[in-house]
Every structure is written in structure tokens, then in C-alpha cells.
Amino acid sequence: MSGRREEILDAAVAIADERGVDAVSMRALADRVGVTPMALYRHVKDKAALLDGMVGRLLTALLPADPAEEHTWDERLRALAHAARKVTQQHPWAAHLLFSRPAVTPDGLRAVDIIYTALIEAGVPEPQVPRLERLISTFVIGFAASEASGRFTPGAEDPRGRRGRPDDGELPGHRALGPWLDLPLDLTAEFEADLADITRLVEAVARYEE
Question: Which GO terms describe its molecular function (predicted)?
């Protein structure tokens, strides 16, 4: 990546951090880097390419610092998942962008390839690898998006926060789980437990297909 293109993508990420991803436009970006909008097209051909570049810029943070360092397949998956959660905590708008655009830049493809090679090493049959990659990516980004948006925090409209209001027969599942729903929510512990479940799922698919 050229230094100028890198500067442009950094500026686009900064605008999104300040005002949200919808505020990122070619004109706003040109003002930020001090050029005319037409000058940007030498480095990003259009708004779609800019957004793809921003996805790639975010996914750079998911790549291992030392690719040659030896780790087991499950360690690589967990490291990638933790890095994705951290990126979304730093850039709350990132989850929506990652959900809405495919990974087409070199860095994006490398991040996906980490999952592919980990699943192959785990013994997952190759025809099943793309499906499991989509499942894992959707979980990680979805968890991060829900955490960033506050969806996991009970609010005024969340049935967990108003269980006493409906008739007992309306929410039998909530009534049965009341003691557990009232526990303090530790999202980090929940994320770790979910990753452990995903590891067991991968191992189960590998065993089933043997």
C-alpha cells in the first residue's frame, strides 16, 4: 500500500471515529487530507473502493504480528476473535461496515485465510471450511456489534428489565430463567465461553466427517 493511500484510509477511519461511517464522503475526506476530491481518485476510484479499503485497514489489526510464530489452530482462531472484538471496541462503527462488505482487499483476504487454514488444520473437511468460516465470522462480528451498540445491556424496553410487568404466562422462558437473567453480565467471560463452544463445534465437525 502506498504511503498516500495509507494516509487517506487513516483519515477516513478518523472521520468515522469522530462522526460515524455515514459521514465519510469523498469531499469530507478531501478536506481532511487537504486535496481536491478529484485528487483522491488517483488512490481510491470511488466510494465503494474507499469503504473496501477501510475494511482492509481495520482487518490489518487482526493479522498476527509475527506470522512465523507457531500457534495451534484454536489459538489462532481465538487470537483473531479477540483482535476483532478489540477493533470494534475501538471503532464502534466498524462492526456494521464489516458486516456489510466482503473482505476483498489483500489484508482482508489474509484475515479470512487465517480461519481457513486453522479449520483445515483442525481436520475439518475442505468442503465444510467455507461454511464454518462464515459461521465463525458472523458470530465474532455479531457479538462485537451487539456489544458496541448496547444490545446486550438491558434497557427500558428489554423484557429482562421488566419481567414483573407482563402476566406470568406471557414470558414462561423468562420466568424459568429469572435467577440467571438477574446475574451481572460479564461479556468478556461470555465471549470466552462462546469461543470455547466454537472450538468444540469445530472439533465435532472434524470428528463427524472422519
Answer: DNA-binding transcription factor activity; transcription cis-regulatory region binding
H/E run at residue 132: helix 129-149
The CATH code belonging to domain 68-208 is 1.10.357.10
- Could you say which DSSP state residue 60 is in? H
Local structure of residue 159 (DSSP, 8 states)? G
- Ordered by start, the domain boundaries in the chain are 68-208
Burial level of 56, CB count in 10 A (0-12/13-18/19+)?
buried
Q: Which residues of 19-44 are buried (b: 16+ CB within 10 A; e: fewer)?
A: eebeebebeebbebeeeeeeebeebb
Summarised one tens digit per residue, pLDDT across range 84-96 is 899 888 888 888 8
Q: Are 74 and 124 in contact (CB under 8 A)?
A: no
Q: 18: which 3 cell numbers?
A: 469522530
Long-range contacts: 9-13, Cβ < 8 Å, 24+?
9/50, 9/53, 9/54, 9/56, 9/57, 10/57, 12/50, 12/53, 12/54, 12/57, 13/54, 13/57, 13/58, 13/91
How much is the CA Rg of the chain, to the nearest whole Å?
21
Residue 157 reports pLDDT greater than 50: no
